[in-house]
Amino acid sequence: MSPLRQFTHEPLKVAPSRRMHRFFVICYWLVPTLVLLLIILGSSIFVIVNLRPESVQEEETDSSQTSFNTTFASSAIMGQGQLLETYVEAIGGRDVLMDLRSLRRDGTILGRDSEEEFDFQLIASLPDKLAFSLESSDGSRKRFLLNGAVAWQVVETEEGIRQIVLLEERPTQAMIKASRLYDPLLELALGGQGVILAINELKYNGVECLEITKMQADGSTLQCFLSKRTFYLIAVEETVDEGGEAIDYKTIYSDHRMVSGIVQPFRKKAYKNDILLDDRMIRSIRVNSGVMSSLFKVPEDLVP
């Protein structure tokens, strides 16, 4: 009896052709061979997947962290350009930040003794213009103005007396720094000013942060602290030489909110040698609201 006889229960009345005979023989051996190959292939894939480094598997399965935190989980592989671009995107994006021309902040300030509260308004406008006004409860008003390298103070009493005083170099430099629309990291990311010297991971006031040490364009250094969860700037620290004495300055930022497409802090605390200088609570921030040029006109008495 032919070996193919077993595939049918009916009596074989006509002998199969040679072509049909070959087809049955090929199927008889090919099907088990294909099954065996599939088993071997599946086993190989299983072995490869389970032999991957643990760090790769953890990166794919840990979905509880934010995209910023996952991207910068290890500062050892972090590129400076990537860090800066991610910071720019986190607070609004390059296009909206490059279109920034002025900022107007209104709020209240508590002094170092926290006994007196002042209403304040701060207007910063490109290029190098600043108007900072303080109004006390007795009705007196102080204004500090900057136009380029010239800074002056205007004191107006309740009786209508007005006095103008040219500011010295140190407060003038402080006003020039305050007039900048961009923080130190944005100055580097958008304007190429300065260079990053080091990046470290640490906790700052209990917050997981990236500590970024930056050299400024003038050669001084400072530390910027970015939250790893939000990638917002939460603090800046620097040491300044004032008359041969090293003074530590620290600014803490909090209560970040989106304003006209840009993330801005609505709380700012400034310290000098760990002593509180002022605590600013901002009520409103306006972006590119327009500024009258006459506000920054240098008084004739101060023009050399």
Structure commentary:
The chain is α+β, with helices and mostly antiparallel strands. Helix content is 26%, strand content 39%. β7 (195-204) and β8 form a beta hairpin. Mean pLDDT is 81; it is low at 1-14 and 47-77.
Chart the SSEs and their pairings.
Elements: H1 18-50, H2 54-61, H3 67-71, H4 80-90, H5 94-98, E1 102-111, E2 117-125, E3 129-135, E4 141-147, E5 150-156, E6 162-166, H6 169-178, H7 184-191, E7 195-204, E8 207-215, E9 221-227, E10 233-242, E11 245-259, E12 262-272, E13 275-287
Antiparallel strand pairs: 1-2, 1-13, 2-3, 3-4, 4-5, 5-6, 7-8, 8-9, 9-10, 10-11, 11-12, 12-13
Rg estimate, integer Å: 35 Å
Walk across the major sheet and give the strand order: 6-5-4-3-2-1-13-12-11-10-9-8-7
Note poorly predicted spans: 1-14, 47-77
Shape: elongated
H/I helix tally: 7
Please count the beta strands (DSSP E, at least 2 residues each).
13
| End-to-end separation | 123 Å
Main sheet, how many strands, which sense, barrel?
13 strands, antiparallel
Helix-strand pattern, N to C?
A: HHHHHEEEEEEHHEEEEEEE
Helix-and-strand structural type: alpha+beta
Percent helix: 25-40%
Q: Residue-averaged pLDDT, rounded?
A: 81
Strand content: 35-45%
Oligomer: single chain
Keywords:
304 residues; alpha+beta; 13 strands; elongated; disordered N terminus
Summarize the structure.
It contains seven helices and 13 strands. By secondary structure, the protein is of the alpha+beta class.
